Amino acid sequence: MPTFDPEKVSEIHQHLHSHLPSESALRVKALETVLVEKGLVNSQTIDAWVEAYSEEVGPKRGALIVAKAWCEPAFKAALLEDAVSAIDHLGYLGKATAHLKVVENTPLVHNLVVCTLCSCYPFSILGMAPNWYKTAAYRSRAVRDPRGVLTEFGVKIDNDIEIRVWDSTAELRYLVLPERPAGTGGLSEEALAALVSRNSMIGTDRVLEIKN
Amino acid sequence: MDGMHDLGGKQGFGPIDVNETDVPFHADWEGRMWAIAQCGGGRDGWTIDWWRHCRELIDPVDYLARPYFDSWMQAYTAAYIDSDTFTLEEIIKAKSDQTPVEPPEAIDTQQVLKDIQSQATRFDRPLAQTPQFEVGDCVNTKQLTTSHHTRLPAYTRGKPGIIHAYHGAHIFADACAKGSDRPEHIYSVAFNASDLWQESQNRKDRVFLDLWESYLEPA
Q1: Which of A95, B12, B103, B195 has the fewest CB atoms within 10 Å, measured from its CB?
Q2: Which residues of A are catalytic?
Q3: Is residue A47 part of a domain?
Q4: pLDDT of A169-197, one tens digit each?
Q5: What is the value of ipTM here, to two decimals?
Q6: Across the interface, do A153 and B16 touch by the CB < 8 Å criterion?
């Protein structure tokens, strides 16, 4: 059982700082080895988890949710009203999405998601977070200079557009519903999903491009 | 705690690497660390916010300088040592002091996909007490400081905001980090960017945070 004693954990961190090897791969190998020898984890199960997040669980799920919302007004209404039930029907409810909210971009609103305190992210629908999402640069600046951050991503936001930054400070998670690009009336849900970038669902992309 | 993790609004970190390779994991060890976090046992009594606090307690120089999933390794390792799951000496030697125990039966990717669905952990709890605020109410965040875990970031302390949405009662993070599942009412609070940052150029821009009731007082 944990002690919930921060002073004790600070002391442990000091020891780890002094005695563990510097190389990250060796550190993680040490942890895996000890947990395996203690009978707490199976290395083949670790392989399976890596494969699941490399191949199956990723932003394709989020893109399908977005495309479906573009095509089906009733689904979009349900998604904005109760995102948890809506994604549960698609089989995508899971890690870190039990309190999911969907925020909609409009011609006058742009949404941007960050976690300034750690790196909270809706894993079951977007997979692994990109590195930049977890960096000090993004976490520090997204709430203070969102327009500057977006410019670095190549996204220009006019001054008459309101930026709404969502700092994920509790267990709610946010998915941005980007605007459907013009001229996509005849496309299938699948073809539309292919236009939805991972970044557009975090808010660091806005105008989606039609690919040929 | 006023730790290095509380990064909102800190300056000097420079540009963002927007051109990183778009892959789930940038090295094998990153994937293995993520996977260990998802499936490792030996965590009786741990809570999400206790784990977050263990990560916040990493030396600030290490917190900023070492790779992201490396900090997960250190947070998990510290929390395991704290729980007596293994010892400092064992992790330094990378070897258990006891005769190895048979690991749990392996699961395949299909089972993992089912397990991910079962990780939809809910944090809402019933609470008889009436919520203190309603949507549209003007509030101020308190000037709270603590050496413990909290989810009220420094950049929103003592600031005016408006209740944007009410989400029921959720397990209170500050208590959760001490092992308690005590709930509190929780709200999305909207802040004008110009109330947070003097240099904010666009008066329309807003920042939204999900904040528990005890962080707030009536304006």
Answers
A1: B12
A2: 115, 118-120
A3: no
A4: 999 999 999 999 999 999 999 999 999 99
A5: 0.97
A6: yes
